[in-house]
Design brief:
- The protein has seven helices and nine strands.
- It is an alpha/beta fold.
- It has a single domain, classed as Nucleoside phosphorylase domain (Rossmann fold, 3-Layer(aba) Sandwich).
- It has a five-stranded mixed β-barrel with strand order 5-8-7-6-9, surrounded by five helices.
- β6, α4 and β7 form a beta-alpha-beta unit.
- α3 packs across α6 and α4 crosses α7.
- The protein is globular, with a radius of gyration of 17 Å.
- The protein starts with 6 loop residues before the first helix and ends with a helix.
Length: about 270
Amino acid sequence: MSTNDSPLESAQQAAQVLNDAAGIESHDIALVLGSGWGSAAQLLGDPVASTPADQVPGFHTSQVSGHPGTLTTIKVDTQAGHKHALVLGARTHFYEGKGVRAVAHGVRTAAAAGAKTIILTNGCGSTHTDFAPGTPVLISDHLNLTAASPLEGATFVDLTDLYSSRLRAVAKEIDSTLNEGVYAQFRGPHYETPAEVRMARTMGADLVGMSTALEAIAAREAGMEILGISLVTNFGAGVSEQPLNHAEVLEAGQQAGPRISQLLADIVRRILK
């Protein structure tokens, strides 16, 4: 892939590789599996193709523990017949320093591969005690605190209902107890200070993390319908007296993994029915 390629050209090249690997013309849905969500792929259906990220134009092996570093096509059996899900296990985080184009490349590739719907998941902190570790939360809106955008030039995109109210309603058909919350993306990779968590809470955020918002903006530009789901892996700094570390995030994800993975697989099938 040439560095002179536009973001859309790069995405089209990557999408062609993935569609060819799966032997299909297009995908129906895409999923970005964040910390704690990786087991969902095994419950969706039968893998058709799995390609290492570094063999797909514009992708690279993830530097973050808990991300498998592969791009997988899964055949999902639904009432309407066979559908194909693209599971992006090679998320690029903004803090990796590869630029906003790299962060948005995954969702743009999914759109170019034919997916009309994308599910963005993450592991995150909670700004209050109402959402305890292990709780899945539907993202209703976000605060982009990265001081960046994946959009380039005079590209004006409406972010009203960015996280689809229709898809949130579908998710609640599967689990009516699901709560909704506002997600704030910080740049990272350092965790937020207690003051920053209080600031985010005052601004309306229930959840804090280091992904998702930039991807959601790029997905909306590409015309995709978006469902966002966070797994609360820890209380934000200052909400509890416990110090924060990445091992804690991974452990919380592992403990909640079976339950949230089944939830996500059921939501995907309901969307595709």
